[in-house]
Design a protein that fits this description.
This protein is α/β, with parallel strands linked by helices. It has helices spanning 39-61, 77-94, 103-115, 151-161, 169-176, 196-207, 212-238, 253-266, 282-294; strands spanning 3-7, 12-18, 22-29, 67-73, 98-102, 121-125, 130-136, 139-145, 188-189, 192-193, 242-246, 269-271. It binds adenosine-5'-triphosphate and fe (ii) ion.
Protein backbone atom coordinates (compact mmCIF):
# COMPACT_ATOMS: atom_id res chain seq x y z
CA UNK A 1 0.00 0.00 0.00
CA UNK A 2 1.02 3.55 -0.77
CA UNK A 3 0.12 6.38 1.58
CA UNK A 4 0.40 10.14 1.15
CA UNK A 5 1.19 11.88 4.45
CA UNK A 6 0.73 15.56 5.23
CA UNK A 7 2.37 17.28 8.20
CA UNK A 8 1.58 20.85 9.17
CA UNK A 9 1.19 21.07 12.96
CA UNK A 10 3.58 23.96 13.48
CA UNK A 11 6.56 25.34 11.51
CA UNK A 12 6.95 22.86 8.68
CA UNK A 13 4.53 22.10 5.88
CA UNK A 14 5.69 18.77 4.57
CA UNK A 15 4.33 15.95 2.45
CA UNK A 16 5.62 12.47 1.68
CA UNK A 17 4.64 9.19 0.10
CA UNK A 18 5.51 5.94 1.83
CA UNK A 19 5.24 2.53 0.21
CA UNK A 20 7.55 -0.36 1.17
CA UNK A 21 10.05 2.42 1.81
CA UNK A 22 10.02 6.22 1.63
CA UNK A 23 9.18 7.17 -1.98
CA UNK A 24 9.58 10.94 -1.70
CA UNK A 25 9.53 13.77 0.81
CA UNK A 26 9.11 17.52 0.27
CA UNK A 27 9.11 20.26 2.91
CA UNK A 28 8.59 23.98 3.15
CA UNK A 29 9.60 25.35 6.54
CA UNK A 30 8.06 28.54 7.86
CA UNK A 31 10.78 30.89 9.09
CA UNK A 32 9.39 33.75 11.18
CA UNK A 33 10.78 37.13 10.03
CA UNK A 34 11.40 37.97 13.71
CA UNK A 35 10.42 36.50 17.08
CA UNK A 36 8.85 33.09 17.50
CA UNK A 37 6.22 31.27 15.47
CA UNK A 38 2.94 33.15 15.17
CA UNK A 39 0.14 30.58 14.71
CA UNK A 40 -1.85 32.55 12.13
CA UNK A 41 1.20 33.46 10.08
CA UNK A 42 2.38 29.84 10.10
CA UNK A 43 -1.07 28.77 8.82
CA UNK A 44 -0.93 31.40 6.06
CA UNK A 45 2.46 30.06 5.05
CA UNK A 46 1.07 26.49 4.95
CA UNK A 47 -1.88 27.57 2.80
CA UNK A 48 0.44 29.39 0.39
CA UNK A 49 2.82 26.46 -0.15
CA UNK A 50 0.46 23.45 0.18
CA UNK A 51 -0.36 23.03 -3.51
CA UNK A 52 3.29 23.29 -4.51
CA UNK A 53 4.62 20.86 -1.86
CA UNK A 54 1.88 18.26 -2.44
CA UNK A 55 2.14 18.74 -6.21
CA UNK A 56 5.88 17.95 -6.17
CA UNK A 57 5.33 14.80 -4.13
CA UNK A 58 2.52 13.52 -6.38
CA UNK A 59 4.54 14.32 -9.47
CA UNK A 60 7.28 11.99 -8.24
CA UNK A 61 5.09 9.30 -6.68
CA UNK A 62 2.19 9.32 -9.12
CA UNK A 63 -1.52 9.47 -8.37
CA UNK A 64 -1.86 5.82 -7.39
CA UNK A 65 -2.43 6.51 -3.68
CA UNK A 66 -4.25 4.11 -1.31
CA UNK A 67 -4.91 6.56 1.55
CA UNK A 68 -4.23 10.10 2.74
CA UNK A 69 -2.84 10.58 6.26
CA UNK A 70 -2.46 13.88 8.10
CA UNK A 71 -1.42 15.18 11.54
CA UNK A 72 -4.70 15.59 13.41
CA UNK A 73 -2.97 16.93 16.57
CA UNK A 74 -1.40 18.07 18.79
CA UNK A 75 -0.26 21.39 17.38
CA UNK A 76 -1.29 24.95 16.59
CA UNK A 77 -5.00 25.17 15.70
CA UNK A 78 -4.75 27.29 12.52
CA UNK A 79 -1.84 25.21 11.13
CA UNK A 80 -3.60 21.94 11.91
CA UNK A 81 -6.79 23.10 10.18
CA UNK A 82 -4.95 24.14 7.03
CA UNK A 83 -3.20 20.78 6.66
CA UNK A 84 -6.43 18.90 7.48
CA UNK A 85 -8.35 20.77 4.78
CA UNK A 86 -5.75 19.80 2.20
CA UNK A 87 -5.83 16.16 3.35
CA UNK A 88 -9.64 15.93 3.24
CA UNK A 89 -9.90 17.32 -0.26
CA UNK A 90 -7.19 14.97 -1.55
CA UNK A 91 -8.87 11.92 0.05
CA UNK A 92 -12.16 12.92 -1.61
CA UNK A 93 -10.46 13.61 -4.94
CA UNK A 94 -8.71 10.20 -4.99
CA UNK A 95 -11.69 8.43 -3.40
CA UNK A 96 -9.45 6.85 -0.72
CA UNK A 97 -9.63 6.57 3.10
CA UNK A 98 -8.47 9.33 5.41
CA UNK A 99 -6.20 8.66 8.40
CA UNK A 100 -5.80 11.03 11.36
CA UNK A 101 -2.32 10.56 12.80
CA UNK A 102 -1.22 11.69 16.26
CA UNK A 103 1.87 13.83 15.63
CA UNK A 104 3.77 12.61 18.73
CA UNK A 105 3.08 8.96 17.96
CA UNK A 106 4.34 9.59 14.41
CA UNK A 107 7.67 10.88 15.82
CA UNK A 108 7.90 7.60 17.76
CA UNK A 109 6.92 5.35 14.85
CA UNK A 110 9.35 6.83 12.32
CA UNK A 111 12.05 6.35 14.98
CA UNK A 112 11.08 2.69 15.41
CA UNK A 113 10.98 2.22 11.65
CA UNK A 114 14.44 3.67 11.12
CA UNK A 115 16.15 2.00 14.09
CA UNK A 116 14.27 -1.31 13.73
CA UNK A 117 14.06 -1.38 17.53
CA UNK A 118 10.97 -3.35 18.43
CA UNK A 119 10.05 -2.07 21.87
CA UNK A 120 12.13 0.92 22.94
CA UNK A 121 11.83 3.56 25.62
CA UNK A 122 11.50 6.80 23.67
CA UNK A 123 12.83 10.22 24.62
CA UNK A 124 10.75 12.59 22.52
CA UNK A 125 12.18 16.09 22.83
CA UNK A 126 10.86 18.77 20.51
CA UNK A 127 9.75 22.39 20.60
CA UNK A 128 6.39 22.03 22.30
CA UNK A 129 6.81 18.55 23.78
CA UNK A 130 9.20 16.66 26.02
CA UNK A 131 8.07 13.17 26.97
CA UNK A 132 9.50 9.80 27.94
CA UNK A 133 7.30 7.11 26.43
CA UNK A 134 7.06 3.36 26.26
CA UNK A 135 4.55 0.86 24.90
CA UNK A 136 2.45 -0.89 27.54
CA UNK A 137 -0.91 -2.65 27.17
CA UNK A 138 -1.90 -1.24 23.81
CA UNK A 139 -0.82 2.36 24.25
CA UNK A 140 2.23 4.59 24.31
CA UNK A 141 2.30 5.45 28.01
CA UNK A 142 3.85 8.73 29.09
CA UNK A 143 6.20 7.80 31.94
CA UNK A 144 7.36 11.36 32.41
CA UNK A 145 6.93 14.69 30.70
CA UNK A 146 7.50 18.40 31.04
CA UNK A 147 5.20 20.15 33.48
CA UNK A 148 5.61 23.51 31.77
CA UNK A 149 7.27 24.20 28.39
CA UNK A 150 8.99 21.83 25.95
CA UNK A 151 12.78 21.72 25.95
CA UNK A 152 13.02 23.14 22.41
CA UNK A 153 10.79 26.08 23.32
CA UNK A 154 12.95 26.76 26.39
CA UNK A 155 16.08 26.85 24.20
CA UNK A 156 14.33 28.98 21.55
CA UNK A 157 13.04 31.50 24.12
CA UNK A 158 16.46 31.86 25.70
CA UNK A 159 18.03 32.42 22.28
CA UNK A 160 15.35 34.94 21.30
CA UNK A 161 15.93 36.92 24.50
CA UNK A 162 19.48 37.40 23.17
CA UNK A 163 18.24 38.47 19.73
CA UNK A 164 19.32 35.23 18.10
CA UNK A 165 17.17 33.99 15.19
CA UNK A 166 14.59 31.20 15.46
CA UNK A 167 15.10 28.30 16.00
CA UNK A 168 17.64 28.83 18.76
CA UNK A 169 18.41 25.16 19.53
CA UNK A 170 21.11 24.65 16.86
CA UNK A 171 22.75 28.02 17.66
CA UNK A 172 22.92 27.15 21.36
CA UNK A 173 24.47 23.80 20.47
CA UNK A 174 27.24 25.61 18.55
CA UNK A 175 27.90 28.16 21.32
CA UNK A 176 27.93 25.44 24.00
CA UNK A 177 30.96 23.81 22.36
CA UNK A 178 33.29 26.45 23.82
CA UNK A 179 31.64 26.71 27.23
CA UNK A 180 32.34 25.39 30.71
CA UNK A 181 29.99 24.52 33.54
CA UNK A 182 28.25 26.92 35.90
CA UNK A 183 25.44 25.64 38.17
CA UNK A 184 21.82 26.10 36.99
CA UNK A 185 18.60 24.74 38.58
CA UNK A 186 17.95 21.06 37.93
CA UNK A 187 14.24 20.23 38.15
CA UNK A 188 13.02 16.63 38.09
CA UNK A 189 9.83 15.99 40.07
CA UNK A 190 9.18 12.26 40.30
CA UNK A 191 9.28 11.27 36.63
CA UNK A 192 8.38 14.75 35.37
CA UNK A 193 10.51 17.66 34.22
CA UNK A 194 10.29 21.45 34.19
CA UNK A 195 12.28 23.82 32.00
CA UNK A 196 10.95 27.33 32.47
CA UNK A 197 12.83 27.94 35.75
CA UNK A 198 16.02 26.75 34.07
CA UNK A 199 15.40 29.10 31.15
CA UNK A 200 14.87 32.09 33.49
CA UNK A 201 17.99 31.22 35.47
CA UNK A 202 19.98 31.05 32.23
CA UNK A 203 18.74 34.54 31.31
CA UNK A 204 19.70 35.83 34.77
CA UNK A 205 23.16 34.28 34.43
CA UNK A 206 23.95 36.15 31.21
CA UNK A 207 22.43 39.33 32.71
CA UNK A 208 24.94 39.15 35.57
CA UNK A 209 27.78 38.82 33.10
CA UNK A 210 28.33 35.07 32.59
CA UNK A 211 29.44 34.34 29.02
CA UNK A 212 26.96 33.03 26.42
CA UNK A 213 29.26 30.05 25.82
CA UNK A 214 29.22 29.03 29.49
CA UNK A 215 25.48 29.57 29.89
CA UNK A 216 24.63 27.66 26.69
CA UNK A 217 26.87 24.78 27.76
CA UNK A 218 25.36 24.68 31.26
CA UNK A 219 21.79 25.01 29.99
CA UNK A 220 22.33 21.98 27.76
CA UNK A 221 24.16 19.92 30.40
CA UNK A 222 21.44 20.55 32.97
CA UNK A 223 18.42 20.04 30.71
CA UNK A 224 19.87 16.98 28.99
CA UNK A 225 20.91 15.37 32.31
CA UNK A 226 17.30 15.80 33.48
CA UNK A 227 16.00 14.04 30.35
CA UNK A 228 18.57 11.26 30.64
CA UNK A 229 17.70 10.68 34.32
CA UNK A 230 14.00 10.17 33.54
CA UNK A 231 14.79 7.98 30.51
CA UNK A 232 17.07 5.80 32.63
CA UNK A 233 14.41 5.42 35.30
CA UNK A 234 11.82 4.43 32.67
CA UNK A 235 14.25 1.74 31.43
CA UNK A 236 14.76 0.46 34.97
CA UNK A 237 11.02 0.40 35.78
CA UNK A 238 9.94 -1.33 32.59
CA UNK A 239 12.88 -3.67 32.09
CA UNK A 240 13.08 -2.66 28.42
CA UNK A 241 16.55 -2.62 26.86
CA UNK A 242 16.38 -0.23 23.89
CA UNK A 243 16.28 3.57 23.77
CA UNK A 244 15.52 5.86 20.84
CA UNK A 245 15.67 9.64 20.65
CA UNK A 246 13.17 11.55 18.47
CA UNK A 247 11.88 15.13 18.01
CA UNK A 248 13.70 18.24 16.79
CA UNK A 249 15.95 18.58 19.87
CA UNK A 250 17.11 15.03 19.15
CA UNK A 251 19.36 16.47 16.42
CA UNK A 252 21.65 17.69 19.23
CA UNK A 253 24.88 15.66 19.30
CA UNK A 254 25.54 16.28 22.99
CA UNK A 255 22.10 14.92 23.94
CA UNK A 256 22.76 11.88 21.76
CA UNK A 257 26.14 11.37 23.40
CA UNK A 258 24.72 11.58 26.95
CA UNK A 259 21.98 9.06 26.16
CA UNK A 260 24.46 6.73 24.48
CA UNK A 261 26.72 6.77 27.56
CA UNK A 262 23.82 6.04 29.90
CA UNK A 263 22.70 3.14 27.71
CA UNK A 264 26.21 1.70 27.48
CA UNK A 265 26.47 1.70 31.26
CA UNK A 266 23.14 -0.13 31.58
CA UNK A 267 23.74 -2.59 28.74
CA UNK A 268 20.88 -1.10 26.71
CA UNK A 269 20.99 -0.34 22.99
CA UNK A 270 20.70 3.28 21.84
CA UNK A 271 19.95 4.72 18.41
CA UNK A 272 18.79 8.03 16.98
CA UNK A 273 17.42 8.42 13.45
CA UNK A 274 19.07 10.93 11.09
CA UNK A 275 18.10 14.60 11.27
CA UNK A 276 15.47 14.50 8.48
CA UNK A 277 13.36 12.15 10.58
CA UNK A 278 13.97 13.99 13.88
CA UNK A 279 12.15 17.27 13.37
CA UNK A 280 8.64 17.56 11.94
CA UNK A 281 8.41 15.85 8.55
CA UNK A 282 5.81 14.34 6.22
CA UNK A 283 7.57 10.94 6.13
CA UNK A 284 6.60 10.19 9.72
CA UNK A 285 2.94 10.90 8.93
CA UNK A 286 2.96 8.87 5.70
CA UNK A 287 4.66 5.91 7.44
CA UNK A 288 2.39 5.96 10.51
CA UNK A 289 -0.59 6.39 8.18
CA UNK A 290 0.50 3.28 6.30
CA UNK A 291 0.72 1.05 9.38
CA UNK A 292 -2.58 2.47 10.66
CA UNK A 293 -4.25 1.80 7.30
CA UNK A 294 -3.04 -1.80 7.38
CA UNK A 295 -4.57 -2.11 10.88
CA UNK A 296 -7.86 -0.60 9.66
CA UNK A 297 -7.57 2.68 11.63
CA UNK A 298 -9.18 5.08 9.16
CA UNK A 299 -11.64 7.91 9.91
CA UNK A 300 -14.54 9.49 8.09
CA UNK A 301 -14.33 13.09 6.91
CA UNK A 302 -17.00 13.92 9.50
CA UNK A 303 -14.75 12.58 12.29
CA UNK A 304 -11.62 14.32 11.05
CA UNK A 305 -11.84 17.37 13.31
CA UNK A 306 -8.37 18.44 14.47
CA UNK A 307 -7.39 18.16 18.14
CA UNK A 308 -4.75 20.71 19.25
CA UNK A 309 -4.42 19.01 22.67
CA UNK A 310 -4.31 15.39 21.44
CA UNK A 311 -2.10 13.38 23.83
CA UNK A 312 0.13 10.47 22.87
CA UNK A 313 -1.52 8.15 25.40
CA UNK A 314 -5.02 8.80 24.02
CA UNK A 315 -4.16 6.81 20.89
CA UNK A 316 -5.25 3.20 20.76
CA UNK A 317 -2.28 1.50 19.11
CA UNK A 318 -4.08 -0.93 16.81
CA UNK A 319 -1.02 -1.69 14.68
CA UNK A 320 1.15 -3.34 17.34
CA UNK A 321 0.22 -6.89 18.22
CA UNK A 322 2.84 -7.37 20.95
CA UNK A 323 1.57 -6.79 24.46
CA UNK A 324 4.52 -4.53 25.23
CA UNK A 325 4.94 -5.93 28.70
P1 LIG B 1 6.25 19.17 18.36
O1 LIG B 1 4.92 19.59 17.80
O2 LIG B 1 6.51 17.71 18.21
O3 LIG B 1 6.55 19.69 19.69
P2 LIG B 1 7.86 21.04 16.91
O4 LIG B 1 6.84 21.68 16.08
O5 LIG B 1 8.41 21.76 18.04
O6 LIG B 1 7.35 19.63 17.31
P3 LIG B 1 10.29 19.79 15.91
O7 LIG B 1 10.79 19.93 14.52
O8 LIG B 1 10.02 18.41 16.39
O9 LIG B 1 9.04 20.71 15.92
O10 LIG B 1 11.32 20.47 16.92
C1 LIG B 1 11.74 21.80 16.75
C2 LIG B 1 12.65 22.17 17.91
O11 LIG B 1 13.90 21.48 17.81
C3 LIG B 1 12.98 23.65 18.00
O12 LIG B 1 12.67 24.09 19.30
C4 LIG B 1 14.49 23.70 17.74
O13 LIG B 1 15.17 24.72 18.45
C5 LIG B 1 14.94 22.34 18.24
N1 LIG B 1 16.23 21.94 17.68
C6 LIG B 1 16.53 21.73 16.37
N2 LIG B 1 17.85 21.41 16.23
C7 LIG B 1 18.38 21.41 17.49
C8 LIG B 1 19.69 21.16 18.03
N3 LIG B 1 20.72 20.85 17.24
N4 LIG B 1 19.84 21.25 19.36
C9 LIG B 1 18.81 21.56 20.18
N5 LIG B 1 17.56 21.81 19.73
C10 LIG B 1 17.35 21.74 18.41
FE1 LIG C 1 7.12 17.63 16.19
Amino acid sequence: TRVLGIEGTAWNFSAAVFDEDLVCLESSPYVPPHGGIHPREAAQHHAAVAADVIGKVLEKAGDDIDAVAFSIGPGLGPSLRTAATAARSLALKFGVPLIGVNHCVAHVEIGRWYTKFSDPIVLYASGANTQVLGFLNGRYRIFGETLDIGLGNALDKFARSHDLPHPGGPIIEEMAKKGSYIPLPYTVKGMDLAFSGLMSAAKEATARGESMEDVCFSFQETAFAMCVEVTERALAHTGKDEVILVGGVGANSRLQEMLRLMCEERGARFMAPPRVYMGDNGAMIAYTGKIMLEAGSTISVADSVVNPGFRSDQVEVTWRSDAGE
